[in-house]
Design a protein that fits this description.
CATH architecture of the largest domain: Alpha-Beta Complex
Shape: globular
Strand order of the largest sheet: 4-3-2-1-5-6
Low-confidence stretches: none
Strand content: 15-25%
Structural class: alpha+beta
Mean pLDDT: 96
Helix content: 25-40%
Radius of gyration: 25 Å
CATH class of the largest domain: Alpha Beta
Distance between the termini: 55 Å
C-alpha cells in the first residue's frame, strides 16, 4: 500500500518537475496533533506517531522523527521502502542537510505551503537558491492521490463559563492589544488553535483529545475578526461573540484578508507557527514583526481560578487512578486483562468523574517490553494479556471542566526482577529530585533538568525525551513555553523563565528495548517561596495525588532525604484523597502510601 502511494506521488512530482517533496506532520495551524484530514505524513509513510517529517525523492523516501518514536517507527516502516532517520543521533543528517545533499542543481523543492511554517519555509527557500533551484508550494500533492481523504472537521463550539476562566475574553483581548501597542503593531495574525481558544474562552473538538476549533484570528486596535466555519457556531455562541466584540468571517477567507493588508502596515505574527503561504500572501511593503504570540506566556501562567480548578481536576483524576490501580493489582491473573482492556477500564473510571469531558491523549498502556516503546499505542494486533508479574507502564490523562491532567505510573503487577526494581528506583530518585527543587527566580527548565538526569547519568544511562512539558488548561496536554530539557533546541522554548502559576510535568524514565520501560510522571505547579537578600526563591507544588508503587521500590537504594521526600509525598496523597474515597479504596490507599 505505502509503496503504491509513493509511486503515485512520484508520478505527480515528475509531472511538475519536482525533485524533492516534503510532507510534515502539520495542519494549517502548526498544531502538535492533527485531525484526520491532515494526516498526510501518516498516509504516505504508514508511521502513526504524532511527530515526524517525510522527504520523498525520485528514488528514496525518508522519515525524520525524534527519540520518543524510534522503536515505533522502526516497526511501522518495515517493508515500506521508507528509511528511518533518527533525529539527534550521531551520524544522522538533519532534514535540511539531507535536502541540501539530495537536491540537484537547479532542482525544484516542493511542499504544501499551508502546512510548513514560514520560518522553515525561509530555510528551505534559501537552500533551494543555493542550488540555483526554486520552490513549488502552491499545491497539495498528497491531496491529489488521497482519494478517500476525510473532510475537514467541523465540531460544535462551546463557550467556557466565566466562573472557570478567571479572565474574560474582553480582558484577554485588551492584554494582547496592550502588547501590540508596545510593539507598534497594527495587526496581529494568530493561527495557533490553542492560543485562539484560550483568547476567546471557547473550546471545540476539531482535533482528537485537544478541544480546539479550526480557525484563524486577526486583531487590530478596533476589531477582532474570527475566521471560522460558521456551521460550528450555534446561536448562543454567535451572541456571545457579539457581546465580546468578535466578528465572524469565513474560515477560508483568512488568506484573502492577509493579502489585502495595505503596504506600510506592521503585522505581528510568529513565523514558527504561521504558514509559508500566509507570509507569502502579504504584500510587499507590509512589515512583519516576527515575535512569539503574546498569548503564549499569558496562557502558560495560570491565574488563581485556573490553579484552584486544576487542583480539583487532579483530585477527580486521582480518584479514577486509585480505583484503577487497586483493581489492577487485585484482579490481574484472576480475570482476563489485556493492555487495551486495562486502558478501557481506566477510561471508564475517569468518565465517572463529575465534569469529565474527554481523555487528554490516547492512553499509553505498555506491558513489559511494550513499556520500552515511549509512545506505545496498543492495537488489536499488538495487544497482549497482563500476567501477575512484571511492570505495566500507564501514561494517561483527562480533560475536565476544571482542567487538564497528565500522569504516568509504572505498576508492579506481581514479582519484578532485580533489573526492574533497580530501574524503577533510579527513576523514582530522579523524579523526587526535580519535584523537590528549590531555585531562584530566573531559572529555566534548561537549568533544572540536570536535577532529574544526574542519578541516571551517574549510572551511565539516559532517557531520550524531555523531562517535562507545560500543560494547558482544558487545552493541549503539551503546552509551551515552559518545560524541562537538558539541551536547547531552536524549535522549542524551554529557555523561558519558570514563573509562578506555570504547570510542568516531571517525567524521567528508563527504557530497555525488548525488556521493559519505567516512567514516573506528576504535575508540578510553580510557586513563589521565600524572598531574601539573595533574591526570590521558587519551589514546586506537586498537584498529582496518586501513590508511586512501593512494591517496585528498593528502599535500601534511597537516601534518608529521598525516603523523607517520598513519605511526605505519600502522606500528602493520603490526606488529600482519603476523604474522597469509599472505605475499601481508602484502606487500600493507606497501605499504598505507608511510610517507608
Amino acid at each position: 500500500m505505502i509503496k503504491e502511494r509513493l509511486a503515485r506521488l512520484r508520478r505527480e512530482m515528475e509531472k511538475r518537475g519536482i525533485a524533492i517533496y516534503i510532507v510534515p506532520t502539520a495542519d494549517f495551524h502548526e498544531s502538535e496533533y492533527v485531525g484526520a484530514h491532515f494526516k498526510a505524513r501518516q498516509f504516505i509513510t504508514g508511521f502513526t506517531g504524532s511527530a515526524g517529517t517525510a522527504v520523498i525523492t525520485a528514488d528514496e523516501a525518508g522519515l525524520w522523527t525524534d527519540g520518543r518514536y524510534f522503536l515505533q517507527a522502526a516497526q511501522q516502516l518495515r517493508g515500506t521502502t521508507v528509511t528511518l532517520y533518527r533525529m539527534g543521533e550521531e551520524g544522522v543528517p538533519t532534514l535540511t542537510e539531507y535536502v541540501r545533499s539530495a537536491l540537484p542543481e537547479g532542482g525544484v523543492l516542493g511542499f504544501d505551503g499551508r502546512v510548513v511554517n514560514a520560518a522553515l519555509g525561509r530555510q528551505l527557500e534559501a537552500l533551494a537558491k543555493e542550488k540555483g533551484g526554486s520552490l513549488a508550494v502552491a499545491e497539495d500533492l498528497i491531496g491529489l492521490i488521497w482519494e478517500d481523504r476525510p473532510a475537514l472537521s467541523c465540531r460544535p463550539v462551546r463557550v467556557l463559563p466565566g466562573s472557570s476562566t478567571g479572565a474574560s475574553a474582553a480582558e484577554k483581548l485588551a492584554g494582547v492589544r496592550a502588547v501590540m501597542a508596545r510593539e507598534g503593531a497594527d495587526v496581529h495574525l494568530l493561527t495557533s488553535l490553542c492560543d485562539i481558544a484560550w483568547l476567546l474562552n471557547v473550546r471545540g473538538g476539531d482535533i482528537d483529545y485537544v478541544p480546539v476549533v479550526l480557525s484563524f484570528l486577526a486583531l487590530t486596535a478596533e476589531e477582532c475578526l474570527w475566521f471560522v466555519q460558521e456551521a460550528a457556531l450555534g446561536g448562543d455562541v454567535k451572541e456571545y461573540l457579539r457581546s465580546v466584540g468578535v466578528e465572524v468571517r469565513p474560515y477560508e477567507s483568512f488568506y484573502d484578508y492577509a493579502a489585502a493588508l495595505a503596504p506600510g502596515q506592521r503585522v505581528l505574527l510568529n513565523a514558527k507557527v504561521c504558514s509559508t503561504r500566509l507570509c507569502a500572501a502579504l504584500r510587499e511593503g507590509v512589515e512583519i514583526l516576527d515575535r512569539e504570540n503574546p498569548t503564549v506566556p499569558m496562557k502558560a501562567v495560570k491565574n488563581a481560578v485556573e490553579t484552584a480548578d486544576t487542583r480539583e481536576a487532579h483530585k477527580k483524576d486521582a480518584a479514577a487512578m486509585i480505583r484503577f490501580i487497586r483493581w489492577l493489582k487485585e484482579n490481574v491473573g484472576r480475570i482476563p486483562i489485556t493492555e487495551i482492556s486495562a486502558a478501557d477500564y481506566l477510561a471508564a473510571r475517569r468518565a465517572e468523574q463529575e465534569g469529565f469531558l474527554d481523555l487528554s491523549f490516547a492512553t499509553i498502556c505498555g506491558y513489559n517490553a511494550h513499556g520500552a516503546i515511549i509512545h506505545y499505542g496498543a492495537t488489536p494486533e499488538s495487544d497482549v494479556p497482563l500476567a501477575p508479574e512484571g511492570l505495566l507502564l500507564v501514561d494517561s490523562g483527562g480533560h475536565y471542566l476544571d482542567g487538564t491532567t497528565d500522569i504516568t505510573r509504572t505498576i508492579a503487577l506481581g514479582p519484578v526482577t532485580r533489573e526492574m526494581r533497580d530501574a524503577f528506583t533510579l527513576v523514582l530518585r530522579a523524579h523526587l529530585r526535580l519535584a523537590n527543587a528549590r531555585f531562584l527566580h530566573g531559572c529555566t527548565g534548561l537549568n533544572l533538568d540536570i536535577l532529574a538526569r544526574e542519578p541516571l547519568w551517574a549510572a551511565g544511562v539516559d532517557y531520550n525525551h524531555g523531562t517535562g512539558h507545560g500543560i494547558g488548561h482544558i487545552l493541549s496536554v503539551h503546552e509551551g513555553p515552559n518545560g524541562f530539557r537538558w539541551k536547547a533546541s531552536p524549535d522549542r522554548s524551554e529557555g523561558s523563565v519558570l514563573e509562578e502559576g506555570m504547570i510542568t510535568s516531571d517525567e524521567p524514565g528508563l527504557y530497555l528495548e525488548g525488556r521493559f520501560g519505567v516512567r514516573t510522571e506528576s504535575e508540578l505547579l510553580c510557586r513563589r517561596g521565600e524572598k531574601n537578600g539573595y533574591g526570590q526563591f521558587m519551589y514546586f507544588e506537586n498537584i498529582t495525588y496518586v501513590p508511586i508503587d512501593l512494591d517496585a521500590v528498593d528502599i535500601t537504594q534511597l537516601s534518608d532525604e529521598e525516603r523523607r521526600q517520598l513519605n511526605e509525598y505519600h502522606a500528602m496523597v493520603y490526606e488529600t484523597m482519603a476523604p474522597r474515597l469509599g472505605d475499601e479504596d481508602r484502606a487500600w490507599l493507606g497501605e499504598a502510601t505507608r511510610a517507608v
